[in-house]
Amino acid sequence: MVNILVIGRHVQIMETILRLINSQPRWTAEGALTDEDALVKFNGVDFNLVLIGGGVEESSEARLKTEFEKRNPQIKMIRHYGGGSGLLFNEIEEAIAK
């Protein structure tokens, strides 16, 4: 099972992304709308991948990356800008394969 932490700032977009990811049999996802929530969730679960969504500022992404890598130096982080489920699934598959 691949555990994915999704970080975004828009509730409706987050709900859609989580629904899409969780519809896949090999993936499970949790979402965080704030940096603080992301840090708490990351420390509670062994995530394989972090998906950064729209609205997350570069400064937040850099801070989170630093904190996540302290706990798991191998963590993979990707940015998702939208574009539909096919693109989302391809981005995740590519990140997992690396």
What's the structural blueprint in terms of helices and strands?
Elements: E1 2-7, H1 11-22, E2 27-32, H2 35-44, E3 49-52, H3 58-71, E4 76-79, H4 85-97
Parallel strand pairs: 1-2, 1-3, 3-4
Can you walk through the features of this model?
The protein is of the alpha/beta class and 98 residues long. It has one domain: Response regulator (Rossmann fold). The chain is built from four helices and four strands, in the order βαβαβαβα. It has helices at residues 11-22, 35-44, 58-71, 85-97; strands spanning 2-7, 27-32, 49-52, 76-79. The chain has a four-stranded parallel β-sheet with strand order 2-1-3-4. Helix 1 (11-22) links the parallel strand 1 and strand 2. The longest helix is centred in the middle third of the chain and has 14 residues, at 58-71. The mean pLDDT is 95.
Q: Keywords, please?
A:
alpha/beta, 98 residues, 4 helices, Rossmann fold, 4-stranded parallel beta sheet, 20% strand
Structure classification: alpha/beta
H/E element sequence: EHEHEHEH
Helix content: 40-55%
What is the CATH T-level topology? Rossmann fold
CATH first level = Alpha Beta
Number of domains: 1
Task: Give me a quick take on this structure.
The protein is an alpha/beta fold. It is built from four helices and four strands.
